[in-house]
Amino acid sequence: xxxxxQLLVRxxxxxxxxxxxxxxxxxxxxxxxxxxxxxxIRVNLQLPPGYTIRGDVTRTKAAMxxxxxxxxxxxxxxxxxxxxxxxxxxxxxxxxxxxxxVKGWNERLSLVIHDxxxxxxxxxxxxxxxxxxxxxxxxxxxxxxxxxxxLDPQIVSLKGVREDLLKVRQVVTEPIxxxxxxxxxxxxxxxxxxxxxxxxLSAEKVKVFLQVGDSKINKxxxxxxxxxxxxxxxTKVKPSFVSIMVQGTPDILNFIKRSDFKAFIEAQGLRPGRxxxxxxVQIPSDTVLIEAFPEKGIVSILKKKKSD
Length: 308
Prior knowledge:
Helix content: 10-25%
Radius of gyration: 43 Å
Structural class: mainly beta
Order of helices and strands: HHEEEHEEEEEEEHEEEEEEEEHEEEEE
Pfam families: YbbR
Largest sheet: 6 strands, mixed
CATH topology of the largest domain: RNA Polymerase Alpha Subunit, Chain A, domain 2
Number of strands: 23
Shape: elongated
Distance between the termini: 157 Å
CATH class of the largest domain: Mainly Beta
Organism: Pseudobacteriovorax antillogorgiicola
InterPro entries: c-di-AMP_regulator, YbbR
CATH architecture of the largest domain: Beta Complex
Protein name: YbbR-like protein
């Protein structure tokens, strides 16, 4: 052990100096060695006032940085570059990215951008208001229908590329599932952006109010006699019968009879003669008139009064 210790301490300071010099030379050599790293360049497109582009104003490019390792320490993981879009130009433009546009770039390093070109479509930015259209998916439960749909808001403002925005007629909602619905419901639905060139919507969601009612059918009732009312004279009418079509729920229509309807022509004040008049109808409650055929009748007012 004593011999080993003597070997270690013999010329100790000389050995320590040698070790220091060896580490110094190693560090210098390592620092001078050329090193390569893949980097990402975040490109910020700077637009003239009043203009916009299709897509993002921030683009990403891949690059390779090459240089002494000691200098590479200060290179950030993501590089940032600003590229100005020329004023007054519209349509498709091709811009070139070089190292001179990279912020804080060390000129002693080499930078290779794999695809230095950026292709964009530039146009004036405009704002436009369009209506919102709901998209329904599925069907209500059997015996029910959607009677009314109300949207809040009903319109939305868009900002974007003039050429693209002028083609937009409406903004639609995401599909709204109404399968097996039986009662009124309020649903919050997302709006779907019309696509390229549209940069902003004034609203991201819309409230959809669904009014649900019983399913309705149409039913026609024929041979309803036409009456003349309000005349002091004897009268004749052609046609003497009409057919009436109404809409309602099956539960209501199944119990309605022909006698529940009334068709008549107002003849008050008419002197003897021949007239074409509207045929008016009265229908049962909880039904909606769809059609009365024919709509007009020929009334003949005779000279003889009813009291004669």
